[in-house]
Amino acid sequence: MRVRRPVVAAALVAALLLSTVVAGLHRYPVASPSRPGGGYHLALAGGTLEGQVNLDGTACMWLGEGLHRTAIYWPYGYTAGGWPFSVYDESGKRLASVGQRVWLGGGFLPDSVNSIPGCSGFDRFWGASPGLSVA
Strand (E) positions, the chain? Predict the structure, then answer.
């Protein structure tokens, strides 16, 4: 039995589209507390939300660009994923997507914090309070 090229090409395109949809549904853990609770700071930080998925299956999100980047330590239960790549709260609600200008309540983590899970190469860390505003 001979398979024609258009059929093979259509099958490859369908497989690629399906893998893109499935990848868009996946949620990746972001740096956050292991349990709910704790206090929050009331300062405000704004900037363009950026992010990436890491090879270890975690994600990192930050504000800023170049040398002026601040990694975000999210509240308990937050995740990242979807298409476009976005941050989701503990109930699964999409809050903002990469490339959007956002405002985050919270405050800088103490100078004794040198890293957070999933975010290497940063020297500033913002502990976000629940919720955010999109500009």
Answer: 27-29, 43-53, 59-65, 68-73, 79-81, 86-88, 94-97, 101-108, 125-128, 133-134
107's tokens: 């405050």
- The number of domains in the chain is 1
Query: Does some domain include residue 10?
Result: no
Q: Strand, helix or coil at 17?
A: helix
SS3 61: strand
Domain hosting residue 100, numbered range? 28-134
Beta bridge partners of 94: 88
Task: Tell me which residues of the chain have a pLDDT lower than 50.
Answer: 12-23
Distance of CA 17 to the CA centre of its chain: 22
Please tell me whether residue 37 adopts helix, strand or coil conformation: coil
Residue 106 and residue 26: Cα distance in Å, rounded?
A: 27
**Within-domain flag for 76:** yes
47 located within any domain: yes
Which tens digits make up the pLDDT trace of 63-91? 998 888 999 999 999 999 999 999 999 99
The first and second tokens of residue 20, run together, are 């893109």
